[in-house]
Design brief:
Number of strands: 5
Largest sheet: 5 strands, parallel
Structural class: alpha/beta
Strand content: 5-15%
Order of helices and strands: HEHHEHHEHHEHEHHH
CATH class: Alpha Beta
Number of domains: 1
Shape: globular
Helix content: 55-70%
Strand order of the largest sheet: 3-2-1-4-5
CATH architecture: 3-Layer(aba) Sandwich
Distance between the termini: 15 Å
Radius of gyration: 15 Å
């Protein structure tokens, strides 16, 4: 797990809405920008799902906007319609990740399952937090506090096995 986390550092990624909201709730929207070399959000997500104040903060911090722009991306987006568990927003983020050959960041199990099926690298909020520790952005104490805060404030289901593995690996 730790080697997989280290491979996230300084790569390019696209974040879905739930991850953006997680980092907003943790008051650490800058962490993904420090872990990755470049971070995208879907233009459609920005225009339809996020409150204006969050969009402004993302732009001020340096997040980039990405859209479907290639035939490959559009075709894949259409192909993903067959997966009923995916929302339009999910399909967009996955398709942009495929189009741009970047990491898809989502906490949604169906999204990560599809990414795995199609060979798209993926991670979630916990992966970014661990990568932030690996890169020296946050201390072990901060990692523990952020994971505790994430468990308390996240709207996502958090697999206790993953939390326990992180606690074991990082001696939290």
């Amino acid at each position: 797990m730790r080697e997989k986390i280290k491979k996230l550092i300084d790569k390019v990624a696209i974040l879905d809405t739930n991850v953006i909201i997680d980092f907003q709730r943790l008051s650490y929207l800058e962490i993904p920008l420090q872990v990755f070399s470049k971070v995208f959000v879907s233009g459609f997500v920005v225009s339809k799902e996020l409150p204006a104040e969050v969009v402004k903060k993302l732009k001020d911090l340096g997040y980039d906007i990405a859209n479907l722009e290639t035939e490959e991306g559009y075709s894949f987006f259409q192909e993903l319609k067959k997966f009923k568990a995916l929302s339009v927003y999910d399909r967009l983020v996955i398709s942009i990740a495929l189009q741009e050959k970047i990491i898809c960041v989502s906490n949604d199990k169906p999204v990560r399952k599809i990414c795995k099926k199609y060979g798209i690298n993926s991670t979630g909020t916990l992966g970014i937090l661990c990568a932030a520790f690996e890169k020296g952005i946050i201390s072990k104490k901060e990692l523990k506090e952020l994971i505790d805060g994430y468990q308390s404030n996240s709207g996502a289901y958090i697999n206790k096995d993953i939390i326990n593995e992180i606690i074991r690996i990082y001696h939290l």
